[in-house]
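Q: How would the structure tokens look for this protein?
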Amino acid sequence: MVELSLGVIAYGLAWGFEVPLNGMLHWRWQDAFLGLWASLPLFSLFFWTLSSPAEPLLEIRLFLEKTLAPLMADWSVARYALLSVLAGVCEEFLFRGVIQGGLTPVLGGAAAILVTGILFGLFHKITWAYAVMGGLIGIYLGLLGLLANNLLVPMLIHAVYDFGALVYFFKVRGLGRSPAPKP
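A: Here is the predicted structure in token form.
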């Protein structure tokens, strides 16, 4: 519901500030492939976060294990896919479409990407380390979206990354799974 709400907010803000969201999204095969390939560096960051002994990254892992795992570990893969698609589409419409798209004419491309990245990081603040990582990811998404001139690229990166991370964390690693009932 949160992700759908962000989509509604994005469209409302786009209408109110006259940001043409529909003109920002185009289906192009080359952009779809770019979105898929550009998700790979985020997976490297994800696996580094899961294996690093650094205290700030340990805090992220503990949040995932203690807070998200009890809520999401027993979800189906289809439910992870739905959440990932909604996050990719709705968050990118809001952050890269409305906020970055609205700020670019006022601040210029680089400053709009930076401000939007910071806001994206703060929106994802589960720990300060995660907020910083989220901010850097937001800058990465904003830059690729701007270079491709297509919201499809950050949407795909975001959705593919979220889906892969959720499935790996909860299904492959099996964190947070309910223990098997004893006979």
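Residues 36 and 52 are 25 Å apart (CA to CA).

The longest helix spans residues 77-107.

Upvote if useful.
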